[in-house]
Amino acid sequence: MRVAMIGTGYVGLVSGACFADFGHEVCCIDKDAEKIRRLEGGTLPIYEPGLDVLVARNVEAGRLTFATGCDGAVGAADAVFIAVGTPSRRGDGYADLSYVYAAAEEIAPLLDGFTVVVTKSTVPVGTGDEIEAILRRARPDAEFGVVSNPEFLREGAAIEDFKRPDRVVVGLEDERARAVMAELYRPLNLNETPMLYTDRRTSELTKYAANAFLAMKITFINEMANLCEAVGADVQSVARGIGLDKRIGSKFLHAGPGYGGSCFPKDTLALIRTARDAGAPASLVETTQAVNDRRKKTMAEKVAAAFEGGVKGKTIGVLGLTFKPNTDDMRDAPSLEIVPALQAMGARIQAYDPAAHEARQLLAGVAFKSGPYEALEGADGAVIITEWDEFRALDLDRVKALMRQPLVVDLRNIYRLDEMRPGGFTYVSIGRAEVRPKRRPRVAHGG
Predict the structure, then answer these.
(1) Mean pLDDT of 93-105
(2) What pLDDT was estimated at residue 443?
(3) What is d(CA 407, CA 424) in angstroms, rounded to the nearest whole number?
């Protein structure tokens, strides 16, 4: 089938490349001419493991192309996907749909024959209705169906999530559109992927409900971590104890400094606004958002408390800055709260992240280093903010030798307590007991 993908951001580029790998002919469209030029030259605008190989393979096969204009691709397409950004609107938290509606306005005059217009962007309930109205006003003669097909891609594992998803959700009001969507996703039949066909509004809400639930799950275990620290329990054992219950499940029960990224912060906020406007406030989601915002702010205080006398004048080696590993995404990353707060307390920050190019533009006054050991050299303490794999098996003897004092604040719990005890480290983590080196007993001297 022929697909036009409007938007070459995270969702559009991954989806377009994966559809091409299924064997469809895909044209990814973006107004940013420089971005398109770089894509045609093999340079990707985002970091996602395996995406560069996937794009190159399908470009070489002739199934994946790039363009700055919609003219030819939209008219020839069986399906046109809108995969543009829907950031939080400044001032009120509503999803900014201006890019979505602009895309609908642009494609309307180009529709030729029955075309399925698919919203891949995360949008509030009723957005599909407005897209349909825009298209109908501009082209009362056109044959089209408007579909909601939300994405459920995890950054760092997006290709796997697209090709082997838990489910595919399709919201539509037109049976002809159903046939097109079934053919687009036919390669997933081999894996017996569940296809959930529903109405458009239900599909739109499903995306927000999924992200809000996962955000609540993260926030719940973070609050349990606080309680564990207060009463002397271990949050990892608590998480395992409840996660083995099949009704709960183990995923998203990892205590940390709070969620960030491109989805959870803006989607919970947009759902809160939608629920209030509908007269059905989502109180649990509102609390989740407030607790998560507060948590990221308190993490700097937790770090400072681990240093005797505070962090003023101290050098801190920070490992990891992106909101999660295997991505360069810095949107709402906890480091954006933690690092400036530590700097405001008088700390000097030297940091390493394997994908730090975006972080370099957002974090001022940070000395960026070329590796984890370089970031820890001469530091008065280390802080682990992002759980990149290369931080999980550091040579602890080398770490101790490089640092002025053996202090590690691990905000991702990537080390075991029994690993840190023998090394003489002061080790502070989330929701677990602190490890402090044993002090030698004082020997009394006298006559």
Answers:
(1) 95
(2) 53
(3) 9
Is 263 labeled as catalytic in the residue annotation? Answer: yes
How many CB atoms within 10 Å of residue 374?
Answer: 15
- Say yes or no: do domains 2-198 and 200-447 share a fold: yes
Contact 405, 427 (CB under 8 A): no
pTM score, whole prediction: 0.92
Q: Which of 187-193's residues contact partners 24+ apart within 8 Å by CB, and which partners? A: 187/22, 187/23, 188/163, 191/164, 193/164, 193/165, 193/167, 193/168
CA proximity to 73, closest of 150, 3, 160: 3
**CATH (residue range 2-198):** 3.40.50.720
Q: Distances in Å between the alpha carbon of 24 and those of 5, 170, 183, 323?
A: 12, 19, 10, 33
> Residue 438 — very low, low, confident or very high, per pLDDT cuts 50/70/90?
confident
pLDDT greater than 70 at residue 41: yes
pLDDT of residue 120: 97
Q: Which residues pair with 350 in a beta bridge?
A: 317, 367
Cα 54 to chain centroid, rounded: 20
Beta-carbon count within 10 A of 112 CB: 12
**Which tokens belong to 282?**
């989502």
Q: Which of 27, 28, 228, 263 is catalytic?
A: 263
CATH code of the domain occupying 200-447: 3.40.50.720
Whether the pLDDT of residue 439 is over 70: the answer is no
Domain residue limits, the chain:
2-198, 200-447
Residues 417-440: b if buried by 16+ CB within 10 A, e if exposed: eeebeebebbbbbbbbeebeeeee
